[in-house]
Design goal:
Helix content is 25%, strand content 17%. The chain is α/β, with parallel strands linked by helices and 204 residues long. It has a single domain, classed as Bacterial phosphonate metabolism protein PhnH (Rossmann fold), CATH 3.40.50. The strands form 2 sheets. It has a 6-stranded mixed β-sheet with strand order 2-1-3-4-7-8. A 3-stranded antiparallel β-sheet has the order 6-5-9. The chain starts with 15 loop residues before the first helix and ends with a strand. The relative contact order is 0.18.
Amino acid sequence: MANVATPAFTGGFNDPVHGSQQGFRAIMEAMARPGTLQTPDGVTAPAPLNPVSALVALTLLDQDTSVWLDSGCHGQADVADWLSFHTGARIAQNMATADFCILSNPKGVTVLADMALGSEEYPDRSATAIMQVTGFEANPDWVCEGPGIKGQIDFQPTGVDDSFLPVWSQNRAAFPRGVDLILASPTQLAALPRTTCIRKAREM
């Protein structure tokens, strides 16, 4: 008999209905207003998942989706077991075919172009990336513009340097194809839809 005290079976939503509703509202608000910070209640999950990235996963993944895990997550069997148990999602071995990709640290952002980008006919078949960050800068050095942003907004995740900018520019240039990105710190989340333009503040 399985030990229900193991990490794979613990944590998750205390109240699945209200927890998923709260998570969904936070994610939709973040996607509708790129670069704004949302502060939902996180959930307990095995390391290296943080509370908010785990909340996003529980909210978006289900038995009809697949999720690819980077080496930081894939190396921890408890993470795959936890996601499978709580969401029913399939663990994908190839990021190019996965509906969702979880990146346990910002260095993984360089692989966006290797994820499912959708097609001109079916851009909705692209992947959504959930990337963990340590936080968000109080004095960001980036400026975001695009749909959902009135004018422009200053925004930058902590620990993500300027090498991200050409990666994101390439992703945006593929529109209507491309990856949508959800950034999750331990306490907050923000989103960058593929339509968002990001520049260095001094370039404006």
